[in-house]
Specification:
Chain lengths: ~375, ~130
């Protein structure tokens, strides 16, 4: 039996700055049942739940809460929110499926950072003794890495702004995006927006909003009689430098974070960064795309700025990044924005994306965080 | 409302006690001799559980800086220069560089620790230009 892990179902809920008429549980239920329906399966076909369970009902945070409403005992579950999203969730599900611990795993849900933390900038979520007292929130942590990259390589504010204008532009013409209809944005617009934490202007930073997402992973064998073209997990890799935000991210330590994960993933898949048709990368700010293009080996370290300035990451560029508008303009919703990166890659490979890259056969999905102190990537391809 | 106040732990109590007396104390491994920050249950260099707080001269160089313009929460006045400082005698700290225009705080700037009281228990190691 071919146990090659494949993605057969995806669902993204509505995404918005705020969804006051929706609860996290409601969004999680929609994401999960939507993805299962998209896969052409029934809930009782699912034997693995790497899913957020916000409650009320069940036990909040305990993944096995899903067993009761799926109407069957589960063979695989997860209680950790970062294991329930994006490439990390996908790779752990793929590992379970590949090993035979489970056959069909749903990954995703809804975990809203906005409602957990209330007003003000998003922080780490837990008290950090040597970080919080300095007002070192998420945007500032990334800014410390960006400022050093600019110092070492001459990366310019215009190059950062090019990333923001390009990806935001994709989102403003995506009807599903939070920023739909708001653009277009020019490099000058980004540079003219108010400073948040140097070198980042407001438009260099991602939006903050609410929403859920989920995906269904099963075996290539099981996928044969399901409705969509299966999207195979060809390779993957994860990399963790240290725990989030307890120490500041230092460029000398994390500048190339993701390189080891990428080397492993590309080696596993037997492809190179030049083979990738579309990139779906974490974009909490403009700079993080430049850093990831370097870490993933799309270009050498220090060449990310000139690369984006050449137009390479646009929809018609050599290395299109985030055709959906990414976190900068489509959606950032807490942890499930990571799953949205996989959803966009799957849609691109199915040929059903809003901004479809012609003939996309191979996609790279990169999730990261904390400045970035962790990186999780997956390589996907049409089977 | 005030800014978040650090809550000392068994690992950090000595750091805060020294800071309250205007001294910078940094974890130093008894076995491999490296200095590290923040304090950990074991040495990041050799996993030794035997380390002590050693006095630091408190001088160093700005490794990275961001000028924060958006208020990060109650108790902060913007703009401020949030900086990563490499201490001359080992270890790297997050702090603010104060008493100069924020735009003067650039990578490579020489700085020294300068202590400011936050609460009865907590005194913070800020940095000023040398």
């Amino acid at each position: 039996m071919n146990r090659q892990p494949v993605i057969v179902g995806v669902h993204a809920t509505e995404q918005a700055r705020a969804l006051p008429h929706r609860t996290p549980m409601d969004l999680a239920l929609e994401a999960v049942t939507g993805a299962i329906a998209d896969a052409g399966l029934r809930p009782s076909d699912v034997d693995g739940a790497q899913l957020d369970w916000p409650g009320p009902g069940g036990v909040p945070g305990e993944g096995s809460s899903w067993a009761r409403i799926f109407g069957r005992d589960l063979r695989w579950t997860s209680d950790a929110m970062l294991d329930n999203a994006g490439s990390r969730g996908l790779l752990k599900a793929a590992a379970a499926i590949g090993c035979g611990f489970a056959d069909t795993v749903v990954v995703g849900g809804c975990k809203l950072a906005t409602r957990d933390q209330g007003e003000g900038p998003i922080g780490a979520g837990v008290p950090l003794e040597f970080t919080d007292v300095w007002g070192s929130y998420v945007v500032a942590q990334f800014a410390l890495v960006a400022s050093r990259h600019m110092h070492e390589f001459g990366t310019t504010p215009e190059q950062l702004a090019t990333v923001a204008a390009t990806i935001r532009g994709n989102g403003t013409t995506n009807p599903e995006a939070v920023m739909f209809g708001k653009g277009p944005y020019t490099v000058a617009d980004v540079l003219a927006s108010r400073l948040v934490a140097t070198p980042f202007h407001l438009l260099d930073c991602c939006i903050v909003g609410e929403g859920g997402a989920a995906l269904v992973v099963t075996t290539a064998e099981r996928a044969r009689d399901l409705p969509h073209v299966p999207v195979a997990v060809l390779g993957g890799g994860m990399e963790y430098h240290q725990a989030a935000y307890a120490n500041p991210a230092l460029f000398r330590e994390v500048g190339m974070l993701g390189q080891d994960a990428a080397t492993r993933a590309f080696g596993m898949a037997g492809i190179t960064p030049a083979d990738i048709d579309v990139f779906s990368l974490y974009d909490p700010n403009s700079f993080e795309i430049i850093r990831q293009l370097e870490a993933l080996g799309v270009c050498a370290q220090g060449e990310g700025g000139p690369l984006v300035e050449s137009g390479a990451i646009g929809l018609d560029g050599k290395h299109p990044v985030n055709p959906d508008g990414g976190c900068l303009a489509y959606a950032w919703n807490g942890t499930q924005q990571m799953t949205l990166k996989v959803v966009e890659a799957v849609r691109q490979l199915r040929g059903s994306a809003v901004h479809q890259i012609d003939g996309a056969e191979l996609a790279a999905v990169g999730n990261a965080g904390s400045g970035a102190q962790h990186y999780e990537m997956s390589l996907l391809g049409r089977l | 409302m005030t800014r978040p106040v650090p809550v000392p732990t068994s690992l950090s109590r000595e750091f805060w006690a020294a800071a309250a007396e205007g001294r910078l104390a940094i974890p130093e491994c008894d076995d491999c001799g490296i200095r590290f920050f923040v304090p950990e249950p074991a040495c990041p260099g050799c996993l030794s559980r035997s380390w002590h707080y050693a006095p630091s001269a408190g001088t160093g160089t700005v490794y990275a800086v961001t000028v924060v313009h958006r208020v990060p929460g109650p108790g902060f006045e913007v703009p401020f220069a949030l900086a990563v400082i490499d201490l001359d005698d080992g270890a790297t700290l997050l702090s603010h560089v104060v008493d100069c225009p924020v735009d003067d705080v650039v990578i490579g700037l020489r700085v020294r620790a300068d202590f400011r009281r936050l609460t009865d228990e907590i005194t913070l190691p800020y940095f000023v230009r040398c």
